[in-house]
Amino acid sequence: MWLSCKISPGQFTDEFIVLVEGADNTEFSLFTEKDKLDFKGEPSIDTPVDGWIKVVPLGKRKNDILVGLPQPTFMNGNIVRVRADQTRDTR
Fold it and tell me: What is the pTM assigned to this prediction?
């Protein structure tokens, strides 16, 4: 499963900063590798790009899905609750 996100360059060549939005509109950020992402264009510090991050679905309740991120967020671990309309099943 894929989750919509914003992507900016990280500190290293193959590392990116990813910003995801939780079901309650809380924003979470994490670092992850390029192979966990799907995006077009070249993100810059000033201009992040829209993209997708690979996640593992862990449960669903009404319109929310609990997902496991490939890396922990800076403040909340690697499990977050998102809206179903923020996800897609295929690349």
Answer: 0.91
